Amino acid sequence: MADRPKAFVVTTIPPDLRTALAQRCDLVDRASAGDWPDQPARGFRVAATTSMAGFDARMLDALPDLEIVICNGAGLDRIDLAAARARNVAICHTPDELADDVGEAVIALTYAVMRRVAEADRFVRSGRWSKERMTASTRVFGKTIGIVGLGRIGSRAAGLAQGIGMKVLYHGRRPRSGASYPFVADLLDLAQQADVLVLSCPASDETRNLVGKAVLERLGPSGYLINVSRGSVVDEPALLDALESRTIAGAGMDVFASEPNLDPRWLRLENVVLQPHSTSITHETRAAMIDRLTHDLDAFQNKRPFHNAAARA
Ligand code: 8YV
């Protein structure tokens, strides 16, 4: 595509990505398309979305001239890959670029919630230190971390956890070839053994509500949950019950069932660390994601090979 294609921007995309796409495409925002996707929009060969906004079959049908969707993110759980393939629409995303920082954030969240870093910050800011002392936190070193989903993010978290003296176990559909950590076939068994249970698995129908009351009870009153996957992987009311009743000790959360509009119960909990789905948002990962998406778009426009997620649907 030598000419500048028109690109339909489905949702609010990060400004850095918008700037990069505007150098290659003429951008049109969904807001200017009336009651799209009920009324198709012609002439758009490119569309831009995010992992959380997704791109479904209805959207594909509403852009009949579409050739490629640019997705800001790794997760494809909200993109209909089969529908895109059936319509010969390519999907490019960022499967590799954010694993290091999200994996690192697993350790940050583990420290933050076990060593009560956010609580201690509030303790100082509130002036309580002049009247009382902070009560004890929990050591991270030597504890067992159970990773649900030893993919790119889980593997990064496992390596870092081992580096700070944690024992690493993992669970998934099957053992990963080459993994040097013990595989635990049963999630309840993993929760029983783990001091920290980390959710880094893809969101799917198979993992929906994977962690509910039974898993949380096995994790137990000295156990912690870290979620950098998707809110859908956890039965959130059961998790909130467990945190309020201290059935589990605490949680470090980057994703939520109804983000960004959280259940207000979260805001009343002292034993949680809350992040606004930001564990991948570092300067370095943003730059890497922009490079990947613009590389793939340029490759597509110039008929060079690139990773098309729809081709593997
Ligand atoms: C996004 C995410 O990358 O990549 C994903 O699937 O869930 C996030 O880390 C981030 O929110 C930027 O859209």
Task: Describe the protein in words.
It is a single chain. 32% of the residues lie in helices and 15% in strands. The chain is α/β, with parallel strands linked by helices and 313 residues long. The strands form two sheets. Strands 7-6-8-9-10-11 form a six-stranded parallel sheet, sandwiched between helices. A five-stranded parallel sheet has the order 2-1-3-4-5. 2-keto-D-gluconic acid binds at residues 50-51, 72-75, 98, 277, 280.
Rounded to the nearest angstrom, the distance between the terminal CA atoms is 25 Å
Category by helix and strand content: alpha/beta
Share of helical residues: 25-40%
Q: What is Rg?
A: 21 Å
Strand content range: 15-25%
The CATH homologous superfamily of the largest domain is termed: NAD(P)-binding Rossmann-like Domain
The stretches of 5 or more residues where confidence is low (pLDDT under 50) are: none
The order of strands across the largest sheet is: 7-6-8-9-10-11
CATH class descriptor of the largest domain: Alpha Beta
Number of domains: 2
Ligand species:
2-keto-D-gluconic acid
- The CATH topology of the largest domain corresponds to Rossmann fold
Structure annotation, total helices = 10
CATH architecture classification of the largest domain: 3-Layer(aba) Sandwich
**How many beta-strand segments?**
11
- Give the CA-based shape: elongated
Kindly state the mean pLDDT as a whole number?
Answer: 97
Order of helices and strands: EHEEHEHEHHEHEHEHEHEEH
